[in-house]
Amino acid sequence: MTREQIKKKLKLDEIGSFQEGRAWVIKGNKYGHVDKNGNITTPIIYDGIGNFYEGEAWVRINDFGFDININGYPIEHKNYYILIKSIF
Description:
By secondary structure, the protein is an alpha+beta fold. The chain has two helices and seven strands, in the order αβββββββα.
């Protein structure tokens, strides 16, 4: 699918360029990622988001930022693992 087709299909406000098979998206005031088939791979729940690089991307909820893997799951880290586990 093209970026425009994905944007229409999911009723997105914006869609970024694909990096490592994923593109950031904006719907309302929330961010997530989609793949080239238009599947949401990172839930559109974040207040900020980055592009993927080496299988990881940065996301933010409120003032709390952390990394996720290519499948949209938080990367375990001792400082925030308990908080993230309670969100998901």
